[in-house]
Specification:
By secondary structure, the protein is mostly helical. The chain is 63% helix and 3% strand. The protein is built from seven helices and two strands; from the N terminus they run H-H-H-H-E-E-H-H-H. The protein has helices spanning 7-48, 53-56, 63-66, 72-86, 100-118, 123-126, 141-144, and strands at residues 91-92, 97-98. A two-stranded antiparallel sheet has the order 1-2. Strand 1 and strand 2 form a beta hairpin. Helix 1 (7-48) crosses helix 5. The longest helix has 42 residues, at 7-48. The chain is elongated, with a radius of gyration of 27 Å. The N and C termini lie far apart (82 Å).
Length: 147
């Protein structure tokens, strides 16, 4: 003889499935809202960062317009020396090669003011993409070491 489950068990299973589905749906909606607000904050931060020096670096004089072939080896040596010292390639600021940290420090000051203005306390958690990386966090050990 077949024993069938009482209808009560089916009802309990349906209630559990409905609650689980509702919880998943709620989690999805909350995550979407969080992601969207994070995206809006990132857009506001990007707008604020338009003042940073790296934004203007492409409009400056190109290295090939300033450097002559006669002193090219000297510039390669300078590049290599900065690279060996910092572990990062130097940046051309329109006049000379600078270490990445020297060049970026001014941008970090602007980032810090943008964080204050937008009330960003944890940029690595509150911002998307590149701006969510430690290098854009003024409180990151990358920047605290130099002070």
């Amino acid at each position: 003889m077949e024993t069938s489950k009482p209808p009560q068990n089916n009802l309990i299973m349906m209630i559990i499935a409905t609650v689980a589905l509702a919880a998943l749906l709620l989690a999805g909606v909350l995550r979407e809202r969080w992601w969207s607000s994070k995206g809006q904050l990132t857009a506001q931060f990007e707008e604020c960062m338009e003042q940073a020096p790296f934004k203007q670096s492409f409009s400056q004089i190109r290295p090939e317009d300033v450097l002559s072939p006669d002193n090219l080896q000297e510039h390669f040596n300078e590049f290599d020396q900065i690279f060996q010292a910092t572990g990062l390639p130097p940046i051309w600021n329109g006049e000379k090669l600078l270490s990445w940290t020297t060049y970026h420090r001014e941008s970090i000051i602007i980032a810090k003011s943008c964080h204050t203005k937008l009330e960003i306390t944890q940029p690595q958690k509150q911002l998307h993409g590149t701006y969510g990386k430690p290098v854009w966090d003024p409180n990151s050990p990358i920047w605290l070491e130099d002070h």
